[in-house]
């Protein structure tokens, strides 16, 4: 809940943008994190607005100027990046004066971003329960392509999770929320523990030096399991988690357990052997033995049949 003391825009514009409405967690899951992470970002409000240059909708993230460092950090990364599977940067402004009451103004920073109109992957899975393997593979390839682009530019996202995988007008992936992103030096370990613990690799749970790029890939592997099954392989890659302990102790029993769960959902559902091999290698407890991004991309399962980007929206619309 946003404290009543936080500034709320009362005028119909912020800088050059015409405010259309508040953006709440249900309106576009792309920015649901703005509400849930308010203590991290000190975000006051998020709005759907209209860009006067092209009349297209944008999302404005607005924060108090005194608490704008995270927003500025995100803007810095996004401004320098352009890829079909990343959320698009529009503008970043500091010291924007807004009217918060009839007698009071406040200075804020704002970040304008592309509006992803079809929510996020998490919402899609919640609606459809799980995705057909060909569609799941198509989405996974888009995720890996986004990460390949970031890692090539020596950037780790550090918070890969379904809520941050947005869906544009064509239902293609747009990776968002670069609040934890950081520049990395290839081969150099990090001791910084940031992101969402559910998607941490085991070495991060153990607070060991780790590769931020490898952590991104581990999280992507968690998401791949969710795409094809509709639920998580384990709650966390930690020894306290029963399913994860089973994976480390007996990988065949781990998959037998999950195949039993899947069978209860639908007797015809099962995990493809190539998919199991890929996930086994992504989840390897030893980060030095874990599969690389290049190996993920060239893996037989990843290279299987996919859906053309232009046909994904039609495919999604036909799902029961």
Characterize the overall form.
globular
Tell me the number of structural domains: 2
Poorly predicted spans: 1-7, 25-43
User: Rounded to an integer, what's the Rg over CA atoms?
Assistant: 21 Å
Our estimate of the beta-strand percent is 15-25%
Instruction: Note the gap between the termini.
Output: 35 Å
**N-to-C SSE string, H for helix and E for strand:** EEHHEEHEEHHEEEEHHHHHHH
Please identify the structural class as seen in this structure. alpha+beta
Briefly note the CATH topology name of the largest domain: Transferase(Phosphotransferase), domain 1
In CATH, what is the homologous superfamily of the largest domain? Answer: Transferase(Phosphotransferase) domain 1
Tell me what you see in this structure.
This protein has 320 residues and is of the alpha+beta class. The chain has two domains: 13-114, Phosphorylase Kinase, domain 1 (2-Layer Sandwich); 121-317, Transferase(Phosphotransferase) domain 1 (Transferase(Phosphotransferase), domain 1). The protein is 37% helix and 17% strand. The chain is built from twelve helices and ten strands. The protein has helices at residues 32-36, 38-41, 69-79, 121-128, 133-152, 202-205, 212-229, 242-249, 251-265, 273-282, 293-298, 309-317; strands at 13-14, 17-22, 43-50, 57-64, 89-99, 105-114, 155-156, 165-167, 173-175, 182-183. It has a six-stranded antiparallel sheet. Strand 5 (89-99) and strand 6 (105-114) form a beta hairpin. Helix 5 (133-152) runs antiparallel to helix 7 and helix 8 packs across helix 9. The longest helix has 20 residues, at 133-152. Residues 1-7 and 25-43 have low confidence and may be disordered.
């Amino acid at each position: 809940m946003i404290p009543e003391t936080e500034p709320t825009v009362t005028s119909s514009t912020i800088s050059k943008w015409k405010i259309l409405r508040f953006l709440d967690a249900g309106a576009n899951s792309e920015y649901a994190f703005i509400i849930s992470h308010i203590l991290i970002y000190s975000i006051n409000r998020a709005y759907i607005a209209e860009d006067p240059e092209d009349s297209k909708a944008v999302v404005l993230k607005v924060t108090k100027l005194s608490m704008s460092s995270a927003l500025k950090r995100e803007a810095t990364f996004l401004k320098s990046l352009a890829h079909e599977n990343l959320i698009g940067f529009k503008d970043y402004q500091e010291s924007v004066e807004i009217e918060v009451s009839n007698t009071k103004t406040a200075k804020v920073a704002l970040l304008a971003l592309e509006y992803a109109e079809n929510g996020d992957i998490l919402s899609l899975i919640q609606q459809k329960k799980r995705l057909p393997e060909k569609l799941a593979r198509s989405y996974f390839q888009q995720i890996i392509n986004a990460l390949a682009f970031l890692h090539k530019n020596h950037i780790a996202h550090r918070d890969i999770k379904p809520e941050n995988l947005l869906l544009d007008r064509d239902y293609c992936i747009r990776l968002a929320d670069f609040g934890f992103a950081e520049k990395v030096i290839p081969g150099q370990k990090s001791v910084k523990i940031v992101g969402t613990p559910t998607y941490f690799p085991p070495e991060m749970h153990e607070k060991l030096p780790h590769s931020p790029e490898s952590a991104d890939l581990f999280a992507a592997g968690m998401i791949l399991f969710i795409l094809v099954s509709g639920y998580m392989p384990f709650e966390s890659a930690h020894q306290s988690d029963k399913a994860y302990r089973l994976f480390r102790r007996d990988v065949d029993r781990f998959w037998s357990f999950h195949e039993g769960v899947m069978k209860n959902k639908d007797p015809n559902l099962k995990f493809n052997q190539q998919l199991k091999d890929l996930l086994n290698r992504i989840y390897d407890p030893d980060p030095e033995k874990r599969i690389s991004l290049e190996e993920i991309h060239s893996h037989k399962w990843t290279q299987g049949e996919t859906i053309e980007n232009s046909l994904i929206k039609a495919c999604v619309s036909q799902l029961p």
